[in-house]
Known about the structure:
single chain; alpha/beta; seven-stranded mixed sheet; 28% helix; globular; binds flavin-adenine dinucleotide
Amino acid sequence: xxxxxxxxxxxxxxxxxxxxxxxxxxxxxxxxxxxxxxxxxxxxxxxxxxxxxxxxxxxxxxxxxxxxxxxxxxxxxxxxxxxxxxxxxxxxxxxxxxxxxxxxxxxxxxxxxxxxxxxxxxxxxxxxxxxxxxxxxxxxxxxxxxxxxxxxxxxxxxxxxxxxxxxxxxxxxxxxxxxxxxxxxxxxxxxxxxxxxxxxxxxxxxxxxxxxxxxxxxxxxxxxxxxxxxxxxxxxxxxxxxxxxxxxxxxxxxxxxxxxxxxxxxxxxxxxxxxxxxxxxxxxxxxxxxxxxxxxxxxxxxxxxxxxxxxxxxxxxxxxxxxxxxxxxxxxxxxxxxxxxxxxxxxxxxxxxxxxxxx
Length: 359
Ligand SMILES: Cc1cc2nc3c(=O)[nH]c(=O)nc-3n(C[C@H](O)[C@H](O)[C@H](O)COP(=O)(O)OP(=O)(O)OC[C@H]3O[C@@H](n4cnc5c(N)ncnc54)[C@H](O)[C@@H]3O)c2cc1C
């Protein structure tokens, strides 16, 4: 079997799942198509806090890739991509294979960068990749110890609320204001919920390094302990910047509204790995790019005109509180309670159901 394709999708992110679903249910573009994924399953991050809180099982939170690929008549290649050449339109896999394609689409998310660390007194886990984080967390659960979470965005807050009663003491460090970018009501509700669970919240405390068993913010020791969880938002994957694609200052692939790379029109990029003004780094934006990407890939392979994606101006935030409830923010409004948790569960489980195919 040749390693030349008409189209290769790299990464089973939210947008690519939407593309596969559409092609499975409606019409697929002509030619040979492959999906390269580091894992057999695609994790749905929105349900991870519920999994940690013991409300879901791991299988509730994943989309199995083989059935959806089979339904879309797409070859599933389970291997990590290690490098990518925009000029040659080729992708190198960890197992030594090299694949080439006329068209490529990237939906590989981001990574969490490690903190500079002296010594090994602190065991550091990054929240991504999820499968590695979950096996580390299972190990930690056997001997619960105080924990510091670094990252005061939505993910850090949800993780703190999910884990607060699973460790003897939990501290949450935030470089600036907690939940910066969200409305003040959500900030207050989150602070209240964290206090109720006895989480020590340290705002404006950017942790810059680990030395021995100490966390430092500038020259101050801000915490001592053995376990640190990093939830510091998406950083770009280094191999993307080295691919020849035009990237922004943070290393994310710069794209046009058609979702094509600025520098290489045969390459598309979506979700957290892409950079487009107005499109935030969150699953919600990646999901919304899916239908436009599906239609543009179809048009590209048929030599037809592409359409623009327009990022929504506002997005609903629902943050799980670990007890089945959720905090809600929409524009300037905020709310909290069990009702919003049930709504979040419904939306999250609908996403999983929509992308689950049998066989
Ligand atoms: C705890 C937590 C909770 C969150 N909750 C929410 C939420 O409720 N709502 C929300 O909107 N956002 C949420 N987020 C943010 C969200 O996870 C990301 O913004 C979102 O997943 C980005 O989606 P994506 O489509 O860009 O890619 P991702 O969902 O990150 O998927 C990338 C895919 O690419 C694959 N991949 C990566 N590298 C390679 C490689 N080298 N080779 C092959 N495959 C590769 C990965 O295995 C993965 O399948 C949360 C994040 C965290 C950490």
